[in-house]
Amino acid sequence: MELPVYKLVIDESDELGVDFVALVDKPAVEKNWFAFKDQQFESYTDYPKQASENAKIALRYAEENGWGDCGEATGKIRANQLAKGLPISRDTIARMASFERHRQNSQKELGDGCGRLMWLAWGGDAGIEWAQRKLEQIDREEMVVTPRAGESKDDFVSRCISVEVEAGKESEQAAAICYSKWEDKMAAQFKFYANKDRRLISGVLMIADLPIYRKDEMGEYYVIFDKEQIEKIAQRFFKKGYTHNVNMMHDSERQVNGVYMVESFIIDKTRGIKTPEGYPTLTEGSWFGTFKVDNDEVWNDFIKTNVFKGFSVEGAFAHRKLQNVEQTTIEKIQDRIQSLSTLLV
């Protein structure tokens, strides 16, 4: 028998909402912390040697003659990166590829305006053309590798195998590749990062439309928060000044000092607020936060030792059973429950 699904809500007439954020060993949202300093970004160093040589030419010219009015700081940084053979990110490659728009000025002599100097600083013909090819390759691979929001393991692997077979792989080989890609992506998503310098712990507080299993005096059921309710909850959390309300394992007697929220945002692509790197399946409307840990005991005994792995919000909410709505809505939620089953720890 399918379990009932309840939507948790607050409204303007009540005082409900999130009262505390707990540090826990098993987050209710099933997503572990993510600290920014040690974030593992993909980087690349396979750009052509000629791209490095072109950057060196630009640097030598600038050393002898100065940059003058040519180039912003990013262009000068790029020249140094390429000249030294340093790793560059996908975003950097995209900027290199977009420099194609300046090609019309690239054939001028050095000293005749800024066109030739900056073209070389960004890798010249070899660098820009490599970046265009590389960007297509990265995005083509990511289209296959990155699970879509709410996509199940089986659906991802099926989609991935189709592409790999079309690219010439045997079926068994394609399956092995795709299962490996899924495991790699999921492992990266759940990895815990410690940041000893900045003492920041970051992660998901609430996930929009994520069915969370519950068993209590009401029986067995699922609860969900939609993006509208999450926005209301986050706003009320700040309005009440609860950014220091942190405890351990939902124990009211273990409220901790010296741990407080320093960053909060809700995923909203229409406002340009995208999912953080490392959270490929995070849904629109989810609440993400960062806490500073000044408390030495909490940091040394619980964070650095990986005892706690994430956040769990606590508070009071009204339950509204999802009924008398279109059947397709219920079916979508049940499908989400099924598709997320392979993602939960």
Task: Produce the secondary structure layout.
Blueprint: E1 5-9, E2 17-24, E3 43-44, H1 49-65, H2 73-84, E4 88-89, H3 90-98, H4 115-121, H5 124-145, H6 153-166, H7 171-190, E5 200-206, E6 212-216, E7 219-224, H8 227-239, E8 246-248, E9 251-255, E10 259-266, E11 287-293, H9 296-303, E12 310-316, E13 318-321, H10 327-340
Parallel strand pairs: 1-7, 2-8
Antiparallel strand pairs: 1-13, 2-12, 3-4, 5-11, 6-7, 8-9, 10-11
Q: How would you concisely characterize the structure shown here?
A:
This protein has 345 residues and is an alpha+beta fold. The protein is built from ten helices and 13 strands. Strand 8 and strand 9 form a beta hairpin.
Give the assembly state of these chains: single chain
Put simply, the count of helices is: 10
The total strand number stands at: 13
Uncertain residue ranges: 35-41, 187-193, 324-330, 336-345
Largest sheet, in brief, is:
4 strands, mixed
Average pLDDT reading:
77
Structurally, how many domains make up the residues?
3
Overall shape:
extended
Radius of gyration: 25 Å
Given helix and strand content, the structural type is alpha+beta
Strand content: 15-25%
Report helical residue fraction.
Answer: 25-40%
SSE arrangement, N to C? EEEHHEHHHHHEEEHEEEEHEEH
Euclidean distance between termini CA atoms: 23 Å
Q: How is the largest sheet built, in terms of strand order?
A: 6-7-1-13
